[in-house]
Specification:
Four Helix Bundle (Hemerythrin (Met), subunit A); 5 helices; 3-stranded antiparallel sheet; mainly alpha; about 180 residues; two-stranded antiparallel ribbon
Length: about 180
């Protein structure tokens, strides 16, 4: 679907009234009241996972570990992980701001992609760890401080833990389509 088609679809869910007001007439998604995690805590979990992943990814880049600056097969997974973590945090912020009930457009373009970006961030963090250990086995520590050699993979290992924890929380607490105007 092209960008223009998405915009048309988004704006097709809005109608202008006779008085000139623009009213949303599309579907809504509602967070189930019987979910094990209350909605407020879900928002806090999303905020914690996004903030934690962003801080860990940024802190991971501050260590001058062996192979992180001149080795493409170590630096490239880090850059990809950093980009996907940024996208994950952006979509997480949009989900938090969307509220409950959430418009169908926001659900399609924020909630679903947030899960995909979190999974991609976790996958690239694992690829980064594997590439880092391959480089470490082939070239040694190259005179880097032992703190950097140890902390770099530990910080990178915490990113998929946080991302997968959030995915687990999200999958246990589903949203559902609102059935009528009284639920909205």
């Amino acid at each position: 679907m092209a960008f223009g088609d998405r915009k048309k679809k988004k704006y097709s869910e809005f109608v202008e009234t006779v008085s000139g007001e623009v009213v949303y007439v599309g579907k809504y998604y509602v967070y189930k009241a019987d979910n094990p995690l209350p909605y407020r805590r879900l928002r806090i979990a999303i905020a914690l996972a996004c903030t934690g992943s962003a801080i860990l990814a940024a802190a991971d880049g501050l260590y001058r570990a062996p192979g992180t600056d001149r080795t493409l097969y170590v630096a490239l997974p880090y850059v990809m992980m950093l980009c996907f973590t940024a996208l994950f945090c952006y979509r997480g912020g949009k989900v938090i701001r969307a509220g409950n009930p959430m418009k169908a457009f926001d659900y399609r373009n924020s909630y679903g992609p947030m899960q995909h970006w979190a999974l991609a961030s976790a996958v690239f963090a694992v690829i980064l760890i594997v590439c880092y250990f391959i480089h470490l086995a082939r070239h040694g520590t190259q005179g880097c401080p032992m703190a950097a050699v140890v902390c770099y993979p530990l910080l990178a290992a915490l990113i998929p833990v946080m991302d997968l924890w959030l995915l687990h929380v999200i999958r246990k607490n589903p949203w559902r389509e609102a059935e009528g105007p009284e639920e909205q």
